[in-house]
């Protein structure tokens, strides 16, 4: 018992306090720094954002009339991939856990019902889009939903095309949207892209650099395939203009060695600082995606700490659980 307490105290002494700094923020895009942590936590956050932050997506489709050129299954699949606004998804229940309904209809706790009715009555092609889906809940609607009639807006604002109709063709359906996560199906993933990179550290040996001629400095700068370095027009010094453009190709280091100047540059990655780039599908705001991912990750960590059965925890949380216990 004493040994376990000592081990626990030792683990607490190594506790870290990661920091987040926002660099750029839009509704569907965020770029931020994650500092004072390691790659396991950074990658866990990335994977949670992609696969475990819940959203709402169409999961059940009942076709009443379909005389279009696409079969029922094809249309149902397209409907499932339409991103729906999912700001309240975290507070909804999973349909499998909901005891207030039978899972196949409208439920205020776990699902949202949609209807679509469209028929082409003339010789002009009728575009059936996500704007034609009418929701029973105004908080869960197709992304970029607009009440403007489709004939009064340009092509860019029409929404996501589901099918095209010609004269006499018709599509009537009912759809049920449910809460889910990307691990179950990609249609529930709120992330379009989530990437991170180690923050590069670049140091120039100024004394060695002074021994180079202007032509040699120019050749050195041009050896880097990305615009990381440049020459100051006033001082003729080699300066770092965009260190994050460095792709760890080592071309400039090899160039320095070929010039007989090893140690001219010292380039390495800071393994405690990361730069994240996150783009969403529009189902939730990028800032909310990051916050929700942190909440989901915290719940997972709490479950690991409270679990008495380490084997069960490993089965549920994989490498992350083993890492947190020092395995």
Can you characterise this structure?
The chain has 327 residues and is an alpha+beta fold. It is built from 8 helices and 12 strands. It is 28% helix and 28% strand. A 4-stranded antiparallel β-sheet has the order 1-2-12-9. The chain has a 4-stranded antiparallel β-sheet with strand order 3-8-4-6, with helices on one face. Strand 1 and strand 2 form a beta hairpin. The mean pLDDT is 86.
Rg for CA atoms: 27 Å
Helix segment tally: 8
Structure class? alpha+beta
User: Biggest sheet: strands, sense, closure?
Assistant: 4 strands, antiparallel
Which of globular, elongated, flat, extended, rod-shaped describes the shape?
elongated
Mean pLDDT: 86
Helix and strand run: HEEHEHEEEEEEHHEEHEHH
Task: Work out the helicity level.
Answer: 25-40%
What is the total tally of β strands?
12
- Low-confidence runs (pLDDT<50, min 5 residues)? none
Give the DSSP E fraction (strand runs of 2 or more residues): 25-35%
As laid out across the biggest beta sheet, the strand order is 1-2-12-9
Terminal residue distance:
20 Å
Which helices and strands, and how do they pair?
Layout: H1 2-13, E1 19-25, E2 29-35, H2 39-51, E3 55-66, H3 72-80, E4 111-119, E5 126-129, E6 134-135, E7 161-165, E8 170-180, E9 191-204, H4 206-209, H5 214-222, E10 229-231, E11 238-240, H6 251-258, E12 265-280, H7 286-306, H8 310-324
Antiparallel strand pairs: 1-2, 2-12, 3-8, 4-6, 4-8, 5-7, 9-12, 10-11
Helix pairs in contact: 2-7, 7-8
């Amino acid at each position: 018992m004493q040994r376990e307490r000592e081990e626990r105290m030792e683990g607490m002494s190594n506790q870290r306090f990661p920091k987040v700094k926002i660099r750029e923020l839009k509704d569907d895009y965020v770029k931020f720094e994650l500092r004072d942590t390691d790659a396991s936590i950074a990658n866990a956050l990335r994977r949670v954002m992609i696969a475990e932050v819940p959203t709402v997506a169409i999961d059940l489709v009942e076709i009443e009339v379909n005389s279009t050129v696409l079969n029922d299954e094809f249309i149902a699949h397209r409907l499932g991939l339409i991103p729906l606004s999912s700001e309240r998804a975290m507070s909804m229940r999973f349909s499998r856990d909901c005891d207030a309904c039978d899972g196949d209809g409208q439920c205020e706790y776990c699902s949202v019902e949609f209807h679509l009715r469209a028929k082409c009555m003339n010789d002009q092609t009728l575009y059936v889009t996500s704007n034609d889906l009418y929701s029973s809940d105004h908080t869960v609607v197709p992304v970029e939903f607009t009440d403007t009639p489709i004939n009064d807006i340009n092509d860019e604002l029409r929404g996501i095309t589901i099918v095209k109709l010609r004269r006499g063709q018709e599509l009537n359906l009912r759809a049920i949207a449910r809460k889910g996560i990307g691990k179950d199906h990609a249609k529930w993933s709120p992330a379009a892209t989530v990437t991170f990179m180690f923050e590069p550290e670049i140091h120039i040996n100024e004394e060695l650099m002074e021994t180079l001629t202007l032509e040699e400095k120019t050749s050195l700068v041009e050896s880097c395939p990305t615009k990381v370095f440049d020459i100051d027009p006033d001082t003729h010094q080699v300066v770092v203009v965009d260190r994050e453009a460095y792709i760890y190709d080592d071309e400039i280091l090899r160039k320095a060695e070929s010039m007989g100047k090893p140690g001219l540059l010292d380039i390495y990655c800071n393994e405690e600082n990361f730069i994240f780039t996150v783009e969403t599908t529009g189902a939730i705001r990028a800032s909310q995606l990051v916050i929700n991912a942190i909440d989901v990750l915290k719940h997972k960590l709490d479950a690991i700490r409270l679990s008495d059965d380490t084997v069960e925890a490993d089965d549920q949380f994989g490498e992350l659980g083993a890492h947190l216990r020092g395995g």
